[in-house]
Design the sequence.
C-alpha cells in the first residue's frame, strides 16, 4: 500500500512540474499601428511649431497613425515571450529646426501574455534644446487585457493597448513626464498556422489545481483506512 501511495505522490508531483518552454513561432507578418501622441502631432503641425514629421523604411504614416510594417521576429506559442523588430524611423521637426527628434528601429519585446516594452533609438534635440543620442531606449510599456487569437490560421491581434511613457523614455524624449499616457496601439501578428496555443481559461487552471488536490486527498484517505484496518487486525 505504501508503494501505491508513493506512486500516487510521484504522479501528483509530475502533474505539478512546470511545462518546458515551447519552441518559438517565427513571425511571418506583423503590423503595429500607433498614433504616438495626438496632441503632440497637433502641436508640431500647428501654427506655433510650424513643423512636420518624416518617415522612412518600415515606418509609414497614414492619418492619424504611424504604421510599423515588414517586421521580423518570433513569439512563443503561449505569447509570453518574443519580439518584433523594424528598421525605419519617424522624425519630428519644428521651430525652424530647433526641435528635431528621430525615433527609429522600433522593437516590441513581449515579457508576459499581456505586456510588452517598446524600445526605440532616440537621436536629436528636445524642446528644451537638449541633445540626445541613445540606442535601445525602453521608451514605453504596452499592456492589454483583450486579444484575439486564432491558432488554426496563426493570427494574433491586440486592439487599443495602453501605451505609457517610461522614465527612460521621458528622459530621452524630453517633452512628457514618466507615466504619461500615449496614444493606444494596435498589434496584428501572423505566424505559421497551428503554432500558437489556445489561451488557457482561468477556470481550466482552477480545475487542474482542484484535480491535483483531490488526487492527493483520496490517496491520503485510502492510506489512513488501510493503516487503521491493519491496526484493528492486530488487536
Sequence:
Amino acid at each position: 500500500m505504501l508503494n501505491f501511495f508513493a506512486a500516487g505522490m510521484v504522479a501528483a508531483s509530475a502533474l505539478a512540474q512546470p511545462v518546458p518552454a515551447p519552441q518559438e513561432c517565427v513571425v511571418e507578418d506583423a503590423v503595429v499601428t500607433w498614433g504616438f501622441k495626438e496632441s503632440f502631432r497637433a502641436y508640431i503641425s500647428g501654427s506655433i511649431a510650424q513643423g512636420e514629421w518624416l518617415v522612412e523604411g518600415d515606418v509609414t504614416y497614414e492619418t492619424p497613425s504611424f504604421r510599423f510594417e515588414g517586421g521580423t521576429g518570433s513569439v512563443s506559442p503561449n505569447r509570453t515571450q518574443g519580439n518584433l523588430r523594424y528598421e525605419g524611423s519617424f522624425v519630428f521637426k519644428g521651430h525652424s529646426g530647433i526641435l528635431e527628434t528621430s525615433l527609429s528601429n522600433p522593437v516590441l519585446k513581449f515579457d508576459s501574455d499581456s505586456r510588452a516594452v517598446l524600445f526605440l533609438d532616440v537621436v536629436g534635440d528636445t524642446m528644451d534644446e537638449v541633445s540626445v543620442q541613445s540606442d535601445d531606449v525602453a521608451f514605453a510599456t504596452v499592456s492589454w487585457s483583450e486579444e484575439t487569437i486564432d491558432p488554426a490560421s496563426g493570427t494574433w491581434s491586440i486592439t487599443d493597448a495602453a501605451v505609457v511613457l517610461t522614465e527612460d523614455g521621458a528622459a530621452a524624449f524630453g517633452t512628457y513626464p514618466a507615466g504619461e499616457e500615449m496614444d493606444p496601439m494596435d498589434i496584428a501578428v501572423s505566424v505559421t498556422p497551428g503554432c500558437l496555443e489556445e489561451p488557457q481559461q482561468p477556470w481550466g487552471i482552477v480545475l487542474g489545481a482542484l484535480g491535483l488536490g483531490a488526487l492527493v486527498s483520496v490517496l491520503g484517505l485510502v492510506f489512513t483506512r488501510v493503516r487503521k484496518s491493519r491496526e484493528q487486525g492486530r488487536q
About this structure: The mean pLDDT is 84. The two ends are 20 Å apart (CA to CA). DSSP finds four helices and 13 strands in the chain.
